[in-house]
Protein backbone atom coordinates (compact mmCIF):
# COMPACT_ATOMS: atom_id res chain seq x y z
CA UNK A 1 0.00 0.00 0.00
CA UNK A 2 1.55 3.33 -1.03
CA UNK A 3 1.62 6.51 1.12
CA UNK A 4 -1.15 8.19 -0.89
CA UNK A 5 -3.49 5.25 -0.31
CA UNK A 6 -2.65 5.17 3.41
CA UNK A 7 -3.30 8.93 3.70
CA UNK A 8 -6.59 8.61 1.82
CA UNK A 9 -7.77 5.67 3.94
CA UNK A 10 -6.76 7.44 7.14
CA UNK A 11 -8.66 10.56 6.06
CA UNK A 12 -11.78 8.50 5.36
CA UNK A 13 -11.70 7.02 8.85
CA UNK A 14 -11.90 10.48 10.41
CA UNK A 15 -14.30 12.32 8.06
CA UNK A 16 -16.58 11.75 5.11
CA UNK A 17 -14.92 11.72 1.68
CA UNK A 18 -14.23 15.21 0.40
CA UNK A 19 -15.45 15.70 -3.19
CA UNK A 20 -14.52 18.64 -5.39
CA UNK A 21 -17.03 18.87 -8.24
CA UNK A 22 -15.78 21.09 -11.09
CA UNK A 23 -17.43 22.21 -14.31
CA UNK A 24 -17.63 25.07 -16.75
CA UNK A 25 -20.92 26.94 -16.72
CA UNK A 26 -23.82 26.02 -19.01
CA UNK A 27 -24.44 22.42 -19.97
CA UNK A 28 -21.37 21.10 -18.13
CA UNK A 29 -22.71 22.64 -14.91
CA UNK A 30 -26.25 21.35 -15.51
CA UNK A 31 -24.95 17.79 -15.96
CA UNK A 32 -22.76 18.06 -12.86
CA UNK A 33 -25.76 19.20 -10.82
CA UNK A 34 -27.69 16.11 -12.00
CA UNK A 35 -25.01 13.98 -10.33
CA UNK A 36 -25.54 15.59 -6.90
CA UNK A 37 -27.40 12.60 -5.36
CA UNK A 38 -24.28 10.48 -5.88
CA UNK A 39 -22.36 12.59 -3.34
CA UNK A 40 -24.79 12.06 -0.46
CA UNK A 41 -22.82 11.66 2.74
CA UNK A 42 -19.76 13.38 1.29
CA UNK A 43 -18.24 16.74 2.11
CA UNK A 44 -18.97 18.54 -1.16
CA UNK A 45 -17.44 21.62 -2.75
CA UNK A 46 -18.63 22.85 -6.15
CA UNK A 47 -16.38 24.98 -8.36
CA UNK A 48 -17.56 26.64 -11.55
CA UNK A 49 -16.87 29.63 -13.74
CA UNK A 50 -20.05 31.66 -13.14
CA UNK A 51 -20.49 33.07 -9.60
CA UNK A 52 -24.25 33.47 -10.18
CA UNK A 53 -24.60 29.68 -10.27
CA UNK A 54 -24.16 29.55 -6.51
CA UNK A 55 -27.94 30.08 -6.39
CA UNK A 56 -28.35 26.56 -7.83
CA UNK A 57 -27.09 25.14 -4.53
CA UNK A 58 -30.06 26.43 -2.52
CA UNK A 59 -31.66 23.48 -0.77
CA UNK A 60 -28.75 21.15 -1.48
CA UNK A 61 -27.54 20.71 2.07
CA UNK A 62 -24.25 22.10 3.21
CA UNK A 63 -22.41 22.00 -0.12
CA UNK A 64 -19.94 24.84 -0.54
CA UNK A 65 -19.36 26.92 -3.67
CA UNK A 66 -16.22 28.42 -5.19
CA UNK A 67 -16.01 30.58 -8.30
CA UNK A 68 -13.03 29.88 -10.56
CA UNK A 69 -11.74 31.67 -13.67
CA UNK A 70 -12.98 30.43 -17.02
CA UNK A 71 -10.26 29.41 -19.45
CA UNK A 72 -9.65 27.60 -22.69
CA UNK A 73 -6.72 26.65 -24.87
CA UNK A 74 -7.16 30.00 -26.59
CA UNK A 75 -6.74 32.11 -23.44
CA UNK A 76 -3.28 31.40 -22.03
CA UNK A 77 -3.42 34.12 -19.35
CA UNK A 78 -6.76 32.80 -18.11
CA UNK A 79 -5.27 29.28 -17.96
CA UNK A 80 -2.50 30.59 -15.71
CA UNK A 81 -5.10 32.24 -13.44
CA UNK A 82 -7.17 29.03 -13.42
CA UNK A 83 -4.17 26.87 -12.48
CA UNK A 84 -3.23 29.24 -9.66
CA UNK A 85 -6.79 29.37 -8.29
CA UNK A 86 -7.28 25.60 -8.46
CA UNK A 87 -3.87 24.90 -6.91
CA UNK A 88 -4.76 27.21 -4.01
CA UNK A 89 -8.11 25.46 -3.67
CA UNK A 90 -6.45 22.02 -3.64
CA UNK A 91 -4.05 23.12 -0.91
CA UNK A 92 -6.93 24.30 1.27
CA UNK A 93 -9.43 21.51 0.58
CA UNK A 94 -7.25 18.45 0.03
CA UNK A 95 -10.04 16.66 -1.87
CA UNK A 96 -10.17 12.88 -1.94
CA UNK A 97 -12.04 12.84 -5.25
CA UNK A 98 -12.41 15.30 -8.11
CA UNK A 99 -15.37 14.80 -10.41
CA UNK A 100 -16.00 16.82 -13.53
CA UNK A 101 -18.16 17.00 -16.61
CA UNK A 102 -15.68 19.34 -18.33
CA UNK A 103 -14.39 21.33 -19.96
CA UNK A 104 -10.99 23.06 -19.46
CA UNK A 105 -11.49 23.86 -15.75
CA UNK A 106 -12.35 20.23 -15.10
CA UNK A 107 -9.33 18.98 -17.01
CA UNK A 108 -7.00 21.30 -15.08
CA UNK A 109 -8.60 20.28 -11.77
CA UNK A 110 -8.11 16.58 -12.54
CA UNK A 111 -4.47 17.02 -13.46
CA UNK A 112 -3.72 19.14 -10.38
CA UNK A 113 -5.71 16.82 -8.17
CA UNK A 114 -3.45 13.91 -9.08
CA UNK A 115 -0.51 15.89 -7.70
CA UNK A 116 -2.38 16.13 -4.39
CA UNK A 117 -3.31 12.45 -4.30
CA UNK A 118 -6.97 12.87 -5.30
CA UNK A 119 -8.77 10.32 -7.43
CA UNK A 120 -10.34 11.63 -10.62
CA UNK A 121 -13.65 11.01 -12.36
CA UNK A 122 -14.40 12.42 -15.82
CA UNK A 123 -17.96 12.26 -17.17
CA UNK A 124 -17.87 13.35 -20.81
CA UNK A 125 -20.72 15.67 -21.73
CA UNK A 126 -23.84 14.24 -23.33
CA UNK A 127 -23.45 16.95 -25.97
CA UNK A 128 -20.54 14.98 -27.42
CA UNK A 129 -22.64 12.40 -29.26
CA UNK A 130 -20.41 11.92 -32.28
CA UNK A 131 -17.03 11.78 -30.62
CA UNK A 132 -15.43 12.30 -27.23
CA UNK A 133 -14.64 15.89 -26.30
CA UNK A 134 -11.08 17.12 -26.69
CA UNK A 135 -10.86 17.71 -22.94
CA UNK A 136 -12.24 14.23 -22.30
CA UNK A 137 -9.68 12.61 -24.60
CA UNK A 138 -6.91 14.51 -22.83
CA UNK A 139 -8.23 13.77 -19.33
CA UNK A 140 -9.09 10.11 -19.80
CA UNK A 141 -5.62 8.63 -19.30
CA UNK A 142 -5.26 10.59 -16.04
CA UNK A 143 -8.58 9.48 -14.48
CA UNK A 144 -9.46 6.67 -12.13
CA UNK A 145 -12.89 6.51 -13.76
CA UNK A 146 -13.57 7.76 -17.31
CA UNK A 147 -17.17 7.75 -18.45
CA UNK A 148 -19.09 8.56 -21.62
CA UNK A 149 -22.85 9.08 -21.79
CA UNK A 150 -23.17 7.47 -25.23
CA UNK A 151 -23.07 3.66 -25.58
CA UNK A 152 -21.42 3.74 -29.00
CA UNK A 153 -18.47 5.75 -27.60
CA UNK A 154 -17.73 3.36 -24.74
CA UNK A 155 -14.85 0.94 -24.98
CA UNK A 156 -17.32 -1.93 -24.77
CA UNK A 157 -18.88 -0.89 -28.10
CA UNK A 158 -15.64 0.08 -29.81
CA UNK A 159 -13.75 -3.02 -28.70
CA UNK A 160 -10.87 -0.83 -27.54
CA UNK A 161 -8.84 -1.81 -24.50
CA UNK A 162 -8.53 1.87 -23.53
CA UNK A 163 -11.20 4.53 -23.45
CA UNK A 164 -14.24 5.57 -21.46
CA UNK A 165 -16.82 3.24 -20.00
CA UNK A 166 -20.51 3.64 -20.71
CA UNK A 167 -22.73 3.35 -17.62
CA UNK A 168 -25.74 5.42 -18.68
CA UNK A 169 -26.62 9.08 -19.06
CA UNK A 170 -27.29 11.82 -16.52
CA UNK A 171 -29.86 13.58 -18.75
Keywords:
single chain; 171 residues; alpha/beta; Rossmann fold; seven-stranded parallel beta sheet; globular; Oligosaccharide biosynthesis protein Alg14 like
Q: Round the Cα radius of gyration to an integer and report it.
A: 16 Å
Pairing-aware structural class of the strands and helices? alpha/beta
Please tell me the CATH architecture by its name. 3-Layer(aba) Sandwich
Helix amount: 25-40%
Distance between the termini: 38 Å
Total strands: the figure is 7
Could you describe the 3D structure shown?
The chain is an alpha/beta fold. It has a single domain (15-166), classed as Rossmann fold, CATH 3.40.50.2000. The protein is 35% helix and 19% strand. The chain is built from six helices and seven strands; from the N terminus they run αβαββαβαβαβαβ. It has helices spanning 3-14, 27-34, 76-93, 104-115, 134-139, 155-158, and strands at 18-23, 43-48, 64-67, 97-102, 119-123, 145-148, 165-166. It has a seven-stranded parallel sheet. β1, α2 and β2 (43-48) form a beta-alpha-beta unit. The protein is globular. The N and C termini lie far apart (38 Å). The model has no long low-confidence stretch (mean pLDDT 89). This is Oligosaccharide biosynthesis protein Alg14 like.
Produce a short descriptive summary.
The protein has helices spanning 3-14, 27-34, 76-93, 104-115, 134-139, 155-158, and strands at 18-23, 43-48, 64-67, 97-102, 119-123, 145-148, 165-166.
Blueprint (SSEs and pairs):
Elements: H1 3-14, E1 18-23, H2 27-34, E2 43-48, E3 64-67, H3 76-93, E4 97-102, H4 104-115, E5 119-123, H5 134-139, E6 145-148, H6 155-158, E7 165-166
Parallel strand pairs: 1-2, 1-4, 2-3, 4-5, 5-6, 6-7
Protein name: Oligosaccharide biosynthesis protein Alg14 like
Organism: Tropicimonas sediminicola
Amino acid sequence: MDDTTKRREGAHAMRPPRVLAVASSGGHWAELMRLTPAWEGCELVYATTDPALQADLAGRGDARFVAIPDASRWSRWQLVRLVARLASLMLRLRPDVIVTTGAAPGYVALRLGRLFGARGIWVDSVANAGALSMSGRMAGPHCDLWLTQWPHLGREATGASEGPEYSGSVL
